[in-house]
Amino acid sequence: MRTNEIVKRAAELKIAIPAFNIPYLPMMEPVVRAVEDEDTFGLLAVARLEWIKFESGSMAAVRHEYGRFAESKHVRLHLDHIPVIDEDDERVDYLAHIREALELGYESVMIDGSRLPFDENVEATARVVEAAHTAGVPVEAELGAVLGHEAEPSMSYEEIVATRTGFTDPEEAARFVHETRCDWLSVAFGNIHGHVSKALRDKEKVAARLDIEHLERIRAGAQVPLVLHGGSGISTAMMQDAIRAGIAKVNVGTDIRQVYERKLREAGGAARDAVYERTRELLREHFRISGMADRLLAR
Ligand SMILES: [Zn+2]
Predict the structure, then answer these.
(1) pTM of the model
(2) How many Å lie between the centroid of ligand 1 and the Cα of residue 196?
(3) What distance in angstroms lies between residue 116's CA and the mean position of ligand 1's atoms?
(4) Which of the two ends of the chain, N or C, has the fewest CB atoms closer than 10 A to its terminal CB?
(5) What are the pLDDT digits (tens) for 10-52?
(6) Which residues are registered as beta bridge partners of 185?
(7) 299 C-alpha to center of ligand 1: Å?
């Protein structure tokens, strides 16, 4: 079954598929094993900034590491954030990255045109959709702006929520999906990315406050499975509310990355075990999808 059908099934079942980011290659094995041992389903993901600012190496290195451990009943490989303009305001040759991912066998891809004006975001996303759909691969896009990756945040989290800065506009979401034919949409409604700059990446994330009513309006407009970026630092109750309101995929980066980095600093060898335990805990208690593999993948 293709990833697109699995995410649609998740939306019908009112559960969310977690996508675990892999900023360090040794995190791959324990995350895959945790998903398998919980007999559920998850995506393994890498974003461009994780091979530039962290240690995942390259898209090909992640693909190779994935191939050593993965089997398709429980996991698939996803390409996260390929920005058109990145967090440091640099232009990116996004189509070249997407084409490379398709050749390597990534099973879903994300294009992030959220730093562009609406029409340019539509244009870039539509190009990626054309290339990916020709290869039978679904596309996630972003509308609105999930902040937090910037090295020097322009405003505090309190200000973002109070002013609804970057929040996805429900009517624009409807137009965007219609015009781009993207399969999943990453939306902003109070969620925030974890820090990635060296100075801030150890900081604990703020406890996010999601605007569930706003999410419901986006969902009514967009009519496709919605994606929550910045999935770390959200309480289980709030996460479950968001899932009931239309979130069908959740990106998890900071949570398991910080577990790994902290353990590496104190104990060395136990870092991968810590990632394994934390991933199982998230699947069981936070996402509550243990034992769901058969239901998600049944024809
Ligand atoms: Zn993101």
Answers:
(1) 0.96
(2) 11
(3) 16
(4) C
(5) 999 999 999 999 999 999 999 999 999 999 999 999 999 999 9
(6) 141, 226
(7) 30
